[in-house]
DNA sequence: GAGTCAATTCGAAGTCACAT
DNA sequence: ATGTGACTTCGAATTGACTC
C-alpha cells in the first residue's frame, strides 16, 4: 500500500518570550514565528546557551477582521507594525524593546490582528513655540495664500531658520490636507521626518508618506500603507491629511511627469493643496523639472532656499512673494534680544561665523611668495586651488611636496588654524571641502602619515567612500560614518567633495576649510553654514560649553571676497545683480561684516580685519593684476616651481 | 582685443534593474 | 533582502565662436 500525503496541518503562531536571567536582554522581548510547537521552537533557540526563558504569550498568526480575515501572516508583518509604534528593534534581530511594559507587546498584537492602525506614527507630540521670525514667515505666507490661492512664495531663509517646523505650522494653520514635499536631496528627508515625528504626528491627523531610501529604517508609511490606512478609515468623518515626501529624481522618472518609468501615477491624480520645493536652488529651473512641475496639479507652491541667488537674479519673485531671513538678521536678533525678557535668548546658541582667508602662495614656498615683477610692481602668482590639489593617474598629488609643505605650514606657523595645541583643541572636528574625489583620497593618505594630523580620524565622505579598488569595506552612508567617527574619536577631519554640503547637521563641526575653487555663492555658503550649527557639550570634568564661534578658513582671497559681496548683496531684491548704488552695496557689506568678520592677510602677511571698501576693491585689484599677466595658464606658472 | 553666450566636458549623486 | 553596475541628470567650469 502506497502512502501518499501531500498536506500537513500547521498552526502558524506568533510567540513572545523574555530571558529574565540575562541582564543584557532586560526590557527586550523576542517576537518570533513558528508553525510548530512554540515551546519546542524556543528551546531550539536557547538550550545550547543554557538560557532560561519566560514565554509571555503565543497567539495564532491570523487576522481576525476583514479585508483578509482568516488569512495568516508572518512575524515580519507584525515587526513592520511595531516599527510604526516606535518600538526599538535590535538591528537584524527579532528582539524588541518594551521598556518595563511587556504588556504593550501583547496589546499591540491584539491591535494588529484587527487591522487597528489608528496609532500609526504616534509621534512625541511635543509643544513648540515658533520664534518670532518663523511666526512672521508663516503669518505672511498664510495671508498671501488667502489672497492668492494659486500663487507662489519664497522663503529666503538661512540654514537653521527652522523651515521644516515653520512649514508644518503653515500646513496646520492653513489646513492643507494634501501636501507634497519635493527636493533634489533625498538625504534631508530625515530632518523633515524628525520634526514631523517630534511636533506634528499624533497631535494631528497628518501622516508622513515616503518611500525614500534614506528613511527606510524609520516608521514612515509607504504609499500602500497609507492607502490601507485610508481605506480602513473611510467611515470616519475626520479628514486625513497626508504629507508626501518625494525626491525630484524619483518624480522626474515617472512616465506621467516626463520620465520613462511607470510609477507615481497617484501624484498626478491628486490635487495638492500645497507643493513645497525644498532646497529650491538645486535641480529646479531646468526643462525637465519644469515639465514635471507643470503636471502636478496644485493650489499653492512654497519655495524654500537658503541661497536663492538664481531665482532672485531672474526676478522670479516679487517683493511681496518673499520672506527674508538672512544671517545678518539672525545675528542682529541675537544681539538685540532684550536681556530683561523672561524668555531665554533663543538665538544665543547660534554661533557667529568668522572668515579667515590666507594667501596660499605665502604658505608653500619662498619663490612663489616673491611673485614676479611686472611694470615695477610685485605681483603674486595667480593661484588655482584645483590645480594645486590635482592628482595624476596613480592617485598621487601632482605637487605632492607643495601640498606637504602646505600641511606643514598649516600646523606650525602660528597664524594658521592647526599650529598650536590650543588651537587644535578648539578645532576638534572640521570639514574640508575639496574639488575632486581623487584629491580627497590623496589628501587622506597624506594626512594619515603626517605627525600632527595622525591624531585625527580622517573620514572620507566623497565618491563611494573607498580608498582603492581593493577596499571592499561595507559602503555606509557618509553621514553615518561621520557621526560614528565623531562619537568614537576625539578629533576628526571630514574630507568631502559634494556630499554633506547641504541640509545635513553635524553639530560638532566647528570649522570648514575651503580647498576647492567653487565660485558659486550658493554652494560656498551652503558649505560654510555646515559649521554654524548650535552645539553644546561637557568635558570630562563636567564643565559645560557652548559653541560660540564657527570658522571658515579659505585659501583664495580674491574669490572669497567676491563671494562675500554676492552674499551680502545678491540675496536681497534691492541690490541683486549689481543693482543699488555703491553706497547701498557697501552698507550691506558693512552690516554683514559686523556679524561675519573677515580676517585676511595683508601684503606683509599680517592678519588684518577687512573693511567694507576692501571687500569691493580687493577682488578688482587682483583681477587687474591677472590682466597684466595676460593669458598665461595658471598651471604654466605653477609647474616649474612645484615639480 | 574685451566681453558675452552657447557648446562641451567632467564629476557627483541618485535611481533602476539585475544578480545572488 | 542586499549589493553591484549601468544609466540618467544636473551643475560648474572650460573652451571656442561671435559681436562690438
List keywords for this structure.
Rossmann fold, globular, single chain, alpha/beta, disordered C terminus, 8-stranded mixed sheet, DNA-binding
CATH class call of the domain at 132-325: Alpha Beta
Backbone CA Rg: 29 Å
Write down how many β-strands occur, each being a DSSP E stretch of 2 or more residues: 24
Provide the helix percentage: 25-40%
Sheet with the most strands: spatial strand order: 17-18-16-19-22-13-23-24
Mean pLDDT across all amino acids: 77
In oligomeric terms, what are we looking at? single chain
- Name the structural class: alpha/beta
The CATH homology group name of the domain at 132-325: P-loop containing nucleotide triphosphate hydrolases
Shape: globular
Ranges where pLDDT stays below 50 over 5 or more residues in a row are 366-381, 465-476, 623-643
For the biggest sheet, the summary is: 8 strands, mixed
Distance between the first and last residues' Cα: 91 Å
**Strand composition percent:** 15-25%
What fold name goes in the CATH topology slot of the domain at 132-325? Rossmann fold
CATH architecture heading of the domain at 132-325: 3-Layer(aba) Sandwich
Provide a count of the helices: 24
Amino acid at each position: 500500500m502506497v502512502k501518499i500525503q501531500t498536506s500537513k496541518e500547521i498552526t502558524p503562531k506568533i510567540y513572545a518570550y523574555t530571558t529574565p536571567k540575562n541582564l543584557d536582554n532586560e526590557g527586550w522581548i523576542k517576537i518570533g514565528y513558528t508553525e510548530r510547537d512554540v515551546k519546542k521552537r524556543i528551546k531550539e533557540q536557547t538550550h545550547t546557551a543554557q538560557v532560561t526563558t519566560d514565554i509571555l504569550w503565543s497567539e495564532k498568526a491570523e487576522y481576525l477582521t476583514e479585508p483578509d480575515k482568516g488569512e495568516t501572516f508572518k512575524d515580519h508583518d507584525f515587526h513592520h507594525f511595531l516599527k510604526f509604534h516606535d518600538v526599538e528593534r535590535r538591528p537584524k534581530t527579532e528582539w524588541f524593546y518594551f521598556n518595563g511594559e511587556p504588556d504593550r507587546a501583547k496589546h499591540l498584537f491584539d491591535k494588529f490582528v484587527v487591522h487597528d492602525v489608528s496609532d500609526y506614527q504616534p509621534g512625541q507630540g511635543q509643544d513648540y513655540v515658533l520664534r518670532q521670525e518663523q511666526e512672521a514667515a508663516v503669518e505672511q505666507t498664510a495671508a498671501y495664500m488667502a489672497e492668492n490661492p494659486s500663487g507662489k512664495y519664497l522663503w529666503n531663509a538661512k540654514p537653521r531658520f527652522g523651515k521644516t517646523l515653520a512649514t508644518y505650522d503653515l500646513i496646520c494653520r492653513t489646513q492643507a490636507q494634501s501636501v507634497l514635499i519635493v527636493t533634489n536631496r533625498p538625504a534631508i528627508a530625515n530632518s523633515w521626518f524628525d520634526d514631523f515625528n517630534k511636533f506634528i504626528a499624533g497631535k494631528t491627523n497628518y501622516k508622513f508618506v515616503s518611500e525614500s531610501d534614506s528613511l527606510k529604517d524609520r516608521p514612515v508609511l509607504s504609499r500602500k500603507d497609507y492607502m490601507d490606512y485610508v481605506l480602513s478609515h473611510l467611515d470616519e468623518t475626520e479628514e486625513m491629511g497626508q504629507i508626501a515626501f518625494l525626491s525630484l529624481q524619483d518624480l522626474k522618472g515617472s512616465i506621467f511627469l516626463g520620465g520613462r518609468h511607470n510609477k507615481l501615477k497617484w501624484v498626478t491624480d491628486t490635487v495638492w493643496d500645497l507643493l513645497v520645493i525644498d532646497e529650491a536652488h538645486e535641480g529646479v529651473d531646468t526643462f525637465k523639472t519644469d515639465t514635471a512641475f507643470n503636471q502636478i496639479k496644485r493650489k499653492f507652491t512654497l519655495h524654500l532656499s537658503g541661497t536663492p541667488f538664481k531665482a532672485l537674479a531672474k526676478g522670479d519673485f516679487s517683493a511681496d512673494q518673499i520672506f527674508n531671513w538672512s544671517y545678518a538678521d539672525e545675528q542682529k536678533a541675537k544681539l538685540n534680544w532684550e536681556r530683561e525678557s523672561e524668555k531665554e535668548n533663543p538665538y544665543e546658541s547660534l554661533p557667529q561665523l568668522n572668515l579667515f582667508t590666507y594667501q596660499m602662495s605665502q604658505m608653500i614656498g619662498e619663490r612663489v611668495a616673491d611673485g614676479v615683477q611686472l611694470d615695477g610692481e610685485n605681483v603674486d602668482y595667480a593661484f588655482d586651488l584645483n590645480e594645486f590639489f590635482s592628482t595624476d593617474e596613480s592617485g598621487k598629488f601632482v605637487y605632492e611636496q607643495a601640498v606637504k609643505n602646505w600641511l606643514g605650514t598649516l600646523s606650525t606657523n602660528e597664524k594658521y588654524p592647526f599650529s598650536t595645541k590650543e588651537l587644535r583643541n578648539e578645532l576638534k572636528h572640521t570639514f574640508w571641502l575639496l574639488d575632486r574625489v581623487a584629491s580627497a583620497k590623496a589628501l587622506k593618505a597624506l594626512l594619515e602619515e603626517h605627525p600632527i594630523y595622525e591624531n585625527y580620524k580622517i573620514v572620507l565622505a566623497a565618491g563611494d567612500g573607498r580608498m582603492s579598488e581593493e577596499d571592499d569595506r561595507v559602503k555606509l552612508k557618509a553621514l553615518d560614518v561621520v557621526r560614528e567617527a565623531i562619537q568614537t574619536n576625539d578629533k576628526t577631519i571630514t574630507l568631502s567633495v559634494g556630499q554633506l554640503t547641504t541640509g545635513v547637521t553635524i553639530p560638532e563641526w566647528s570649522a570648514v576649510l575651503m580647498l576647492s575653487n567653487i565660485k558659486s555663492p550658493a554652494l560656498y555658503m551652503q558649505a560654510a553654514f555646515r559649521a554654524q550649527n548650535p552645539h553644546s557639550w561637557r568635558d570630562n570634568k563636567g564643565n559645560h560649553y557652548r559653541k560660540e564661534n564657527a570658522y571658515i578658513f579659505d585659501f583664495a582671497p580674491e574669490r572669497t571676497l567676491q563671494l562675500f559681496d554676492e552674499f551680502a548683496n545678491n540675496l536681497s531684491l534691492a541690490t541683486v545683480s549689481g543693482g543699488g548704488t555703491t553706497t547701498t552695496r557697501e552698507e550691506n557689506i558693512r552690516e554683514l561684516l559686523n556679524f561675519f568678520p573677515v580676517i585676511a592677510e595683508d601684503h606683509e602677511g599680517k592678519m588684518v580685519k577687512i573693511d567694507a571698501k576692501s571687500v569691493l576693491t580687493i577682488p578688482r585689484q587682483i583681477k587687474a593684476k591677472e590682466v597684466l599677466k595676460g593669458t598665461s595658464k595658471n598651471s604654466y606658472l605653477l609647474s616649474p616651481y612645484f615639480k
